[in-house]
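To illustrate this point, what follows is a protein record of this kind.

___
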Amino acid sequence: MQPIDGVLFDYGQTLVTFAYPKAELLEVIGNFRPTIEEVLGASAPPPEVILEQVFMPLEQYVSSESEDEIDWLEAARASWERAGLSLPDGLLYEIVDAEQMCWDRIVRVDPDALHVLSLLRARDIKRGICSNAPFPPEMMRRQVGSNGIGELMDGIVFSSMVGRRKPAPEMYRAALDAIDVAPERVLFVGNRPREDYDGPRSLGMQAVLYTAHNSEPAPAGIRSIARLGELPQLV
C-alpha cells in the first residue's frame, strides 16, 4: 500500500450530522409569508402547507442517486411554482438563504472530527471535502466556515460546484486537484459504499467506510471504522 499524503472526506453523516429542522423552517416561512403575500397580491397558504408542498419535495434531490447535479435555485423555483406560488428571483434567493441558515445552526459536528482534522494537519497530511450537496456553493462554504471544519481543510468540493454527483469521476478528480495529491496516495472516508468506497477505489484511491452514523454496518469485505478517532491509525 502507498503511503497516505491526503485524506478526502464525505460531509453529511461523516464529518457532520443533521436533524430536519422543522420548527426552524416553519418560522422562516412564517417570517416571509407577509412578503410573499405582498408580492403575489394574494393570500399564501399556512406555513405548514408550504413546508409540505414546497420544501419537503426538494428533499428528493439531497439523496438523489443521479450523477448529474441540479441547480438548487431552479429546483426551488419550480417547487414554489408547482404550489401555485411564483416568486421573483430576489425573494426566492432570500428564502433559500434563510432556509440554509437553519441548517447552518442545527448542524452537529462529529465528536472526533475537529480533533482528527487537526492531527492530520499537524502531520502535514492534506485534507479535503468531496461531498454531494446540491445547495448553492456560497451557502455551503458559509456552513463549513461557521462550524470550524472549513479552516481545517486544504480543499472543499461540493457537487453544486462541479455539476456532477458522486460516484461521477469528475467529483473525485476535482477534489484530488483541490488538495493536489495523486489518487494512489489518498484515503477516502465516507459512509456510503457506492459513493465513498467503490467510487474512490475506481480512481485508484484507498477507502474506508465510517459507520457511526449509519443504520447498518458496512457490507462484508469492506474496510470500516466505528469512530473517526480510529482514522489516524490508518494513515
Q: What stands out?
A: The domain at 6-18+109-234 is CATH 3.40.50.1000 (Rossmann fold). The chain has two domains: 6-18+109-234, 22-106. The longest strand covers residues 126-131.
